[in-house]
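Technical annex, item 7. During the second reporting period the consortium partners agreed on a shared format for inverse folding records so that results from different sites could be compared directly. Each record opens with the tokenized structure and is followed by the designed sequence. A conforming record, contributed by the partner at site C, is shown below for reference.
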């Protein structure tokens, strides 16, 4: 008998940093085991598919970027389907399932996926499978894995329904246009880790590998003395379980060492976003005292001889390298210490089984090994399960092999989250914990993501300081932990701190020149304009700024700009300005204290409200500790600025521990001053956001 041909479905992905593509590739790889064939394309390749005529089910995997925008690769697609002239039955023929990726730490969670999902519904498309919304803040795999598991049965049912429709249409041609099936009630579902609520396909039909282990061998994996699980060992029931592990990703990269010399590519070749600028660092100031919990630095860059332009409120990106000692350690573990300066040629492996395999755009076709590991690959990235699965094949010790299998398995999802994801474990930590694991260079290129440039808020005004660009950052510290044996500094902040150490000086007045020295050090930057987080176009409009810690950075630029405008336009009317600032200790980390007093004195800043969360007080009534507390004390003024004077409200800083609390405080203020219930107040805040009068520049 002839084998029945595999049934086709269309698989589209829209990715910004590669996660959606990787998940789509996993779906593509598993499809064959279920008797299906995925026709996979990037959603931007609109010449390779046509939803207007698509008859087969469509699966879409889409991420979210920026402040809730679809990824760059989906912009053309989204613009096309948002055409208001399209009729409401434009996609009435279309069956689809959508998996959205996002991060609930940000305001517009999974908005890229929601936008496409909502518009497809408006145009008549029918979901054949519940929409999944995966949350990167708790682990995408908690939703992605069960969503993929349930996809196959839903696809087969959709394909069967399609076949029945086709048979019926062939039999009753004359009435085909009048037949329609009532859409069954399908509600968008934010899948959670409670996967028992999902209707999953039988375990035996999964596309993943299933590993079983005899109980006699268990003592090789988890010795009796180990009563608590860790990165390197497990305990029952996991240590005694048969495992469902992902399919082995196909190899697709090969690396050839070349016995020739030459120069590496310029860093500009690493930037796909447009032109980059190599600029000198002219000044560095430590803004915090030595005994402060965090070290905050201000750096000044000379952009006078460049075409780099910015507005206060904009951000820009710094191209940074991996830590030199970490690169050396990695070379040593790979057994390539002597070949770091050798040139390598990277190309796609002939005959690879990877669908649509292409040369990674962030890897030069020819450069030194050190250049690739230093400037191209994010060696600090948290390894994904597909990477762990590939590392299994490079591990010789049986116990280590089993533990890696557990960590990438469905049964080991909790251990993966706790010991790898939440512990911020990277490749070097894994290779230290599993010494018999010896991956190839090609495997690292296949699985490590692009080393991303780091984004910073501008903390200056080009009008106030022509030819200068300032920014502020905390030097990020990652303490050692059971899963991570050494402490580390942030990739970019640690590099910048080391780079400017020779000209660094502690100064109470960051705008002063005392002790200033000059450096020949340069950094490569490129602009990342912010389309919304800018001063009001009308200078008479009042605004409120909330920026504790380094969140004050863009507001220094705002105030510098406002001061210069006041000096140049004495006949203009300027609205009042409020700044709410907070830090731990008044005498240790009160950033820009002297500058703020100057702005207050000359009238640029109308109101300055500060709080200190760790300072003790002898007052009968304890002073407020956090900016949201101070906001509540100024409720009438805040409401007046927002409601009566149609002012603007800006928030900059930590999302999880500040911005959400500030948002809650504003809702309480609006509710109280409007004499409305909380729901009405939330609607008012939503309207402020919609009108771009409540603006955030936050990070997690």
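Designed sequence (site C submission):
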């Amino acid at each position: 008998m002839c084998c029945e041909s595999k049934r086709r479905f269309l698989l589209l992905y829209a990715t910004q940093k590669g996660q959606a593509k990787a998940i789509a590739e996993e779906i593509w790889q598993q499809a064959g085991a279920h008797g299906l064939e995925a026709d996979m394309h990037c959603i931007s390749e609109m010449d390779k598919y046509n939803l207007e005529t698509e008859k087969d089910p469509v699966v879409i995997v889409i991420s979210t970027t920026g402040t809730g925008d679809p990824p760059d690769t989906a912009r053309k697609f989204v613009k096309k389907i948002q055409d208001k002239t399209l009729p409401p039955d434009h996609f009435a023929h279309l069956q689809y399932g959508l998996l959205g990726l996002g991060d609930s730490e940000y305001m517009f969670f999974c908005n890229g996926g929601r936008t496409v999902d909502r518009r497809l519904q408006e145009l008549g498309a029918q979901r054949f499978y519940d929409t999944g919304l995966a949350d990167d803040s708790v682990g995408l795999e908690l939703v992605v894995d069960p969503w993929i598991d349930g996809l196959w049965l839903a696809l087969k049912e959709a394909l069967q329904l399609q076949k029945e429709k086709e048979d019926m249409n062939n039999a009753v041609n004359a009435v085909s246009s009048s037949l329609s099936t009532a859409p069954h009630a399908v509600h968008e579902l934010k899948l959670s880790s409670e996967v028992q609520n999902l209707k999953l396909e039988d375990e035996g039909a999964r596309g993943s590998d299933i590993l079983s282990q005899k109980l006699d061998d268990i003592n090789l994996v988890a010795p009796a003395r180990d009563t608590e699980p860790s990165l390197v060992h497990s305990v029952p029931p996991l240590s005694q379980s048969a495992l469902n592990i992902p399919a082995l990703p196909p190899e697709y990269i090969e690396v050839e060492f070349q016995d020739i010399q030459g120069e590496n590519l310029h860093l500009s070749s690493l930037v796909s976003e447009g032109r980059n600028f190599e600029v000198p660092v002219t000044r560095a100031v430590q803004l915090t005292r030595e005994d402060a919990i965090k070290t905050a630095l201000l750096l000044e860059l000379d952009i006078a001889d460049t075409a780099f332009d910015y507005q206060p409120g904009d951000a820009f990106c710094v191209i940074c390298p991996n830590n030199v000692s970490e690169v050396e350690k990695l070379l040593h573990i790979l057994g390539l210490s002597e070949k770091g300066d050798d040139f390598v040629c990277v190309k796609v492996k002939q005959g690879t089984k990877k669908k649509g395999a292409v040369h990674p755009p962030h890897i030069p076709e020819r450069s030194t090994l050190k250049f690739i590991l230093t400037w191209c690959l994010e060696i600090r990235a948290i390894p994904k399960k597909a990477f762990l699965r590939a590392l299994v094949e490079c591990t010789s010790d049986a116990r280590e092999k089993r533990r890696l299998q557990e960590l990438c398995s469905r049964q080991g999802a909790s251990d993966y989250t706790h010991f790898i994801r939440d512990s911020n474990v990277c490749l070097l930590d894994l290779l230290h914990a599993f010494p018999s694991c010896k991956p190839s260079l090609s495997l690292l290129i296949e699985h490590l993501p692009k080393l991303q440039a780091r984004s910073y808020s501008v903390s200056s005004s080009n009008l106030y300081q022509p030819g200068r660009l300032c920014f502020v950052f905390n030097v990020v510290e990652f303490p050692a932990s059971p899963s991570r044996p050494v402490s580390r500094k942030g990739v970019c902040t640690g590099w910048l701190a080391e780079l400017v150490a020779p000209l660094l000086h502690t100064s109470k007045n960051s705008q002063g020149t005392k002790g200033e020295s000059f450096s020949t050090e340069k950094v490569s930057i490129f602009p990342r304009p912010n389309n919304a987080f800018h001063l009001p176009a009308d200078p008479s409009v009042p605004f409120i700024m909330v920026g504790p810690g380094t969140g004050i950075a863009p507001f220094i630029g705002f105030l510098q700009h406002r001061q210069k405008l006041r000096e140049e336009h004495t006949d203009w009317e300027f609205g009042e300005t409020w700044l709410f600032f907070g830090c731990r200790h008044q005498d240790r980390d009160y950033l820009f204290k002297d500058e703020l007093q100057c702005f207050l004195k000359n009238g640029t800043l109308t109101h300055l409200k500060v709080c200190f969360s760790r300072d003790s007080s002898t007052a009968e009534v304890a002073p407020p500790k956090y900016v949201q507390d101070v906001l509540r004390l100024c409720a009438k003024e805040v409401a007046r600025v927002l409601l009566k004077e149609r002012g603007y409200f800006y928030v900059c800083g930590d999302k999880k521990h500040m911005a959400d609390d500030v948002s809650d405080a504003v809702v309480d203020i609006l509710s109280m001053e409007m004499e409305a219930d909380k729901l009405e107040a939330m609607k008012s805040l939503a309207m402020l956001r919609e009108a771009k009068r409540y603006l955030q520049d936050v990070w997690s």
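The longest strand covers residues 277-286. The chain has 19 helices and 25 strands. All partners now use this format for quarterly exchanges.
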